[in-house]
Design a protein that fits this description.
Elements (H helix, E strand, L loop, with lengths): L11 H19 L11 E6 L5 E5 L8 E3 L12 H6 L2 E3 L5 E3 L5
Antiparallel strand pairs: 1-2, 1-3, 4-5
Length: about 100
């Protein structure tokens, strides 16, 4: 007599769902592999009138020659939208965004 409750190999649907879950986990984990602009207890500041940036401990003001990035335009990871944006721009002494001169 045959039993209907035999163990069957996983179906294609179950295998597909498992692979999709692994893919989502890898993709969401990839964000944590990006190099952060500053450490956990620091914030980034921009060199005024020239290229460059630095990190300042939370609660401290930027050093002379540096300024906070404009609100909403702060880079968080190397290569992100704002990091790329500030590679060609800086702030002038009035706090206005200006293009950096081309390096030839």
């Amino acid at each position: 007599m045959r039993t209907a409750n035999r163990l069957r190999p996983p179906s294609r649907t179950a295998l597909g769902l498992a692979l999709a879950g692994v893919t989502v986990a890898l993709l969401t984990g990839a964000c944590s592999l990006q190099q952060a602009t500053c450490g956990g207890d620091e914030y980034p500041v921009l060199a005024v009138g020239s290229a460059g940036s630095a990190c300042v401990p939370d609660g401290e003001e930027p050093p002379k020659g540096y300024a906070r990035y404009p609100e909403g335009k702060v880079p968080e990871h190397e290569g992100d939208k704002w990091d790329t944006y500030w590679n060609t721009r800086t702030l002038d002494a009035k706090g206005e965004t200006v293009e950096l001169p081309d390096e030839n």
